[in-house]
């Protein structure tokens, strides 16, 4: 076996292949591969594919618009047969902040900009993106949060991002802006969030709504209070479910390039963890 395409291989499994030359994550994230302490020292390649990127941007736009257009409020009104219109601020007054300005974060941010929102992003290294206010590093986080009403998280799970989404962080979001409250959309990884802090933030009002696609334990255990929380929207880690057709074509293209002596694209930086 020269190449392995894996999602969540049991720890130690990949160490059994002495001829392995590259490991392909069957997704954009790689934490499910890198968390194997016995992982062979071969390149780890992640998926960067327009199909996956578009699916994630659709998800982000859907949920940002859901909060912006107060769709859950209108759903509740419909249930009660209530015909009542609420004030609707223009998107140009609503500040959306994207944590992670990688392949997925940049595309989602560009789409949100196109929809008219005030968009900012936060990344590890300095970025310059047209029309998007950028912040970076631990020193840039507070300024980014203070101006953000709808927080979209598209960070990878690494030691530096573990449990970054805490009550303390939610309290820094801008709750008195045009969106009339702060909202969270996490489609990055469950390891980024502290579930109990999300519930606490929703209950005290520092968050007015949360869309969660990922969880520290998946599937989300039936006993989790998130399931029935009236301000939570849950999806089963399918924000950008990889379609096997483009995914397989993508990996085969990479193998052909590699066997022709060309470098692999999108190789993970093991030190950084993404
Ligand atoms: P990239 O590697 O292209 O981008 C990661 C971004 O996160 C970069 O902008 C990087 O900063 C930033 N980042 C990493 N560490 C830090 C840190 N410590 N502080 C601040 N910023 C940081 O990844 P993708 O955009 O392709 O994917 C992002 C994640 O989305 C994946 O790792 C995966 O976990 C998740 N995902 C979820 C899916 C789902 O269905 N829910 C589907 C696909 C992916 P810099 O630019 O400076 O390097
Ligand atoms: C991914 C995912 O990383 O689907 O691609 O979570």
How does this structure look, described?
The protein has 274 residues and is α/β, with parallel strands linked by helices. It has 8 helices and 10 strands. The strands form 2 sheets. The chain has a 7-stranded parallel sheet with strand order 6-5-4-7-8-9-10. Strands 1-2-3 form a 3-stranded parallel sheet. Helix 7 links the parallel strand 8 and strand 9. The structure holds NADPH dihydro-nicotinamide-adenine-dinucleotide phosphate and oxalic acid (OXD). Oxalic acid (OXD) binds next to loops.
The biggest beta sheet is recorded as: 7 strands, parallel
Bound molecules: NADPH dihydro-nicotinamide-adenine-dinucleotide phosphate, oxalic acid
Low-confidence stretches: none
The total of beta strands comes to: 10
Approximate helicity band: 25-40%
Order of helices and strands: EEHEHHEHEEHEHEHEEH
User: How far apart lie the N and C ends?
Assistant: 24 Å
Rg to the nearest angstrom?
20 Å
Mean pLDDT comes to 97
Enumerate how many helices there are, as a single number: 8
Strand arrangement in the largest pleated sheet: 6-5-4-7-8-9-10
- SS-derived structural category: alpha/beta
Outline of the structure:
The protein has 274 residues and is of the alpha/beta class. Helix content is 31%, strand content 15%. Helix 7 (195-204) links the parallel strand 8 and strand 9 (209-212).
Secondary-structure blueprint of this entry?
Layout: E1 3-6, E2 22-25, H1 31-34, E3 44-45, H2 50-68, H3 71-79, E4 95-99, H4 103-114, E5 118-123, E6 133-136, H5 137-146, E7 150-153, H6 167-170, E8 183-186, H7 195-204, E9 209-212, E10 232-234, H8 244-259
Parallel strand pairs: 1-2, 2-3, 4-5, 4-7, 5-6, 7-8, 8-9, 9-10
Helix pairs in contact: 2-4
Bound molecules: NADPH dihydro-nicotinamide-adenine-dinucleotide phosphate (NDP) and oxalic acid.
């Amino acid at each position: 076996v020269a190449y392995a395409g894996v999602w969540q291989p049991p720890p130690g499994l990949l160490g059994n292949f002495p001829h392995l030359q590259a490991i392909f994550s069957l997704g954009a994230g790689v934490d499910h591969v890198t968390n194997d302490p016995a992982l062979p020292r071969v390149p780890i390649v992640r998926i960067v594919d327009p199909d996956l990127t578009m699916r994630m941007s659709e998800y982000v736009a859907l949920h940002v618009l859901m909060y912006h257009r107060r769709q859950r409020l209108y759903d509740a009104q419909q249930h009660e047969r209530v015909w009542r219109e609420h004030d609707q601020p223009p998107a140009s007054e609503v500040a959306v902040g994207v944590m992670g300005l990688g392949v997925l974060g940049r595309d989602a941010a560009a789409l949100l900009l196109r929809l008219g929102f005030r968009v900012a992003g936060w990344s590890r290294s300095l970025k310059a993106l047209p029309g998007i206010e950028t912040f970076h590093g631990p020193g840039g986080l507070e300024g980014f949060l203070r101006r953000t009403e709808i927080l979209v998280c598209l960070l990878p799970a690494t030691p530096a991002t573990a449990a970054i989404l805490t009550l303390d962080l939610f309290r820094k979001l801008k709750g008195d802006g045009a969106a009339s409250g702060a909202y969270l959309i996490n489609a990055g990884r469950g390891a980024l969030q502290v579930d109990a802090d999300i519930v606490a933030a929703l209950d005290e009002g520092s968050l007015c709504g949360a869309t969660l696609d990922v969880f520290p334990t998946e599937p989300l255990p039936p006993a989790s209070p998130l399931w029935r929380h009236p301000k939570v929207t849950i999806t089963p880690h399918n924000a950008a479910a990889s379609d096997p057709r483009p995914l397989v074509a993508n990996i085969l293209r990479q193998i052909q390039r590699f066997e022709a002596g060309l470098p692999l694209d999108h190789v993970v930086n093991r030190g950084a963890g993404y």
